[in-house]
TrEMBL record:
One protein family per Pfam: Voltage_CLC
Membrane topology term: Multi-pass membrane protein
Stated name of the protein: H(+)/Cl(-) exchange transporter ClcA
Listed GO CC annotations: chloride channel complex
Subcellular location: Membrane
Amino acid sequence: MVYFKKINDLLTSFDLKTSGKWFVLSCLIGVVAGLGAIVFDALTQFVQHHSLVAIAGFEHPQTVGEYSFYQDHAVEVDFAPWLLLAVITLGGLASGVIVYNIAPEAEGHGTDAAIDAFHNKRGEIQPRIPIVKTIASALTLGTGGSAGREGPIAQIGAGFGSWVATKLKLSARDRRIMLAAGMGAGIGAIFRAPLAGALFAAEIMYSNADFESDVIVPAAMSSIIAYSLYCMSLPQSLRFMPLFGNELHHTVDSHFELIPYAILSVVLSLSAAFYVKTFYGTNKLFKRLPIKPMFRPAIGAFLTGVVGIGLFYLYHQDMRALSVLSTGYGLLQEALTNASNVGIPLLLTIAFVKVFTTSLTIGSGGSGGVFGPSMVIGGCIGTATGQFLQKMWPDLVTQPEAYGLVGMAGFFAGAAHAPISTIIMVSEITGNYALLLPTMLASTLCFVLCQRVHLYQKQYPSRLDSPAHRGDFLIDVLEGSRVADVYDPNRKIQLIPESKTLDEIVHSLAGTQQHYFPVVDDAGRIIGVFSEDDVRAYLYDETIWKLALARDIMQPDFLRVTPEDDLNTVMQRFTAINVEALPVVDASDPGILLGMLHRKETIGYYNQQLLKHKRAGEELEPA
């Protein structure tokens, strides 16, 4: 705790708006997110090597840019489909038992939980959640569950950012920024896409075209550090290689190609809607099962294995059919480099079945991300569509693999409402920036066509709707209003001479509805104010009724306002000293009393102005 106090003292020495503070915090988050990505990757490979590979004889294909810690430790075990089914079921059971007994909040894909914490929980994430999420996701993925790696990594970074902010006693706003920066760092590291990670953290919070602008710079710094640290754990030959290698050099040869890319966008939008509907429909079905929640992931994993093995035999024991399990990146790598070797039937089958295996794995309560499967589904649909369009327009569509790259971006942009970060993400993980034009077209069209599709259900439409920004966008209805617009200078006010005795004051109160009384001197100038409460303090001591004067019970140091004072300032004064009326005096001579401004009148005026703005069509929050 002493160390946290010293760090807190150091950080608070920076101005909150300076980049110095965020540089320190972002670097710290980036280091932890980078280490978290390394640990999660190693743990997942450990589980996979000692379960899928050592027991079932199944080693899932990887992309060109991925690195296996066990590549020099080959295990000679024949593939046994039914042992694969046992492994994936036990993995789902272990994941469910851990999650539902330690941190039930860690179920599912994780990104939604981080988004919800940002909007509704002041950026607070329980420290145990990232740890449980890491272990459970490694078990799910390592045993063959169909899921992605970004969910747990995002929660590791987000959870650490939230924890540090809490320990340093930072504001809720700062905690939210650190949570989002942690998300961006995790994404940037695991996908080796630092720019996309930063933009993803800012964009994924909202379903409309809105950004959490305060997050971008801290998230960029965190993402750079996490990406660099993660890459240092890789061999030199892979450190700067994109996830899918350096050989994807597709181009756009004609502007007329945008027409088939627009057709692809429609196909992707329909597919994204089917994916989201299936995912949450499956989730609802599992929640209705009359069994303990901890056993649901095992059932989902078992059904996932059955579907995968069934497809394996359907395609005459083609190992590529098992891409519906685990990440599926190996098949996607082949589809993006040589689509003709895969063929339209297998690509569409993998895409269609991957929707169900992902829904069974994660929708049942299993732990893992949904971005990875989305890339496989979108990439397979894109490549298959490209091959089909090539047969229709061979002179126009010459590179069906390019449609796979665009499909990856468009599918997730529509499902998750994150077009900008997805465009950059796909470009970074494939190392191909020549397809920016069709990728932008497809992502934008899918985003527009999928307005009713919500993969992340905790997103808010915009900053205006988010509880995290409640009050930021209220229109100031008192702007430009003055005291003169409210108080009545003709209202009769009972003035109390300073020489008036308490006995006379007590008897005069019985015949008036006034609660605050200005005290004036012989020249009629105001010198103080007292209220009914000030008089009550003397009611039980009649011996001083004829001795005490108005000047004895009045408050000589009192707040006053002028007709030209701004009503916002006046409302703050009412709140600060908790009074119901303030004397209005002449601006050039504070001794001349012009009237009294009452709190009730000011609030009434505010509500009148509020009603006018509402009638004009502006959305405001009542006082």
